[in-house]
């Protein structure tokens, strides 16, 4: 009998191009200063800065919309083999943003991201296949691999499947274990679901089940310290990122040359003095918030 798969909710949040955590309005000069530092990091070989600049120019976040520059920075990030760039390029190709719409190329870039172990791409492929009811076993393996990498969406989806018997039978202990790890991150309703499992297992007469319940209770009772920036989470994170990238890539003064980058500076004996001419190069998407914080576009606010 062919299995029927029902995936609750629209779990394709990675295709949403308007997240809550965007740069938005900020004090005059601060955004431009942060973006200038990020752009300089990209010029000096940071693939992380490159993909952020690509998305920034595509969406007009912190800079004016410029599709040519978005395209150039995306190509550069891909040339530097940034896994996140593969994934965003796949999204852009799928919906025809910045580049022409091409489903085949979208799948190609998605596969590139998966092949280098990028968990969000594994999750996307798995959910698409499960919704289409194809390649079920391989999709479950992708979800499991992404969950092992700590990808919260994959962990939560897998927990719900264990919980609801989507794999042929119910796996309460496996589901509880996943909720246990998600609870300390305040992910969705994982803490409430963990509490229900804890109470159920505590009522068991089995000593091993009770021991497991005690472990769950420890996680449930773990204090979560909420950390929020007073102003603009995304901007604060971007500022910190730009400073980190500067310390990594700006090891020597720039020479003013217009040579094309060959590899990240500081690697293979190359000093950080190569500048790429963006303007002279031939030339719906994730927001910066999504690049920094994941598909939800919300800053991680809990630590333990």
From TrEMBL:
The lineage of its organism: Bacteria, Pseudomonadati, Pseudomonadota, Gammaproteobacteria, Alteromonadales. Residues 1-21 form the signal peptide. Keywords: Signal. It comes from the Bacteria. Coiled coil: none annotated. The keyword Signal applies. This is Sel1 repeat family protein. The keyword Glycosyltransferase does not apply. InterPro entries: Sel1-like, Sel1_AlgK, TPR-like_helical_dom_sf. Pfam families: Sel1.
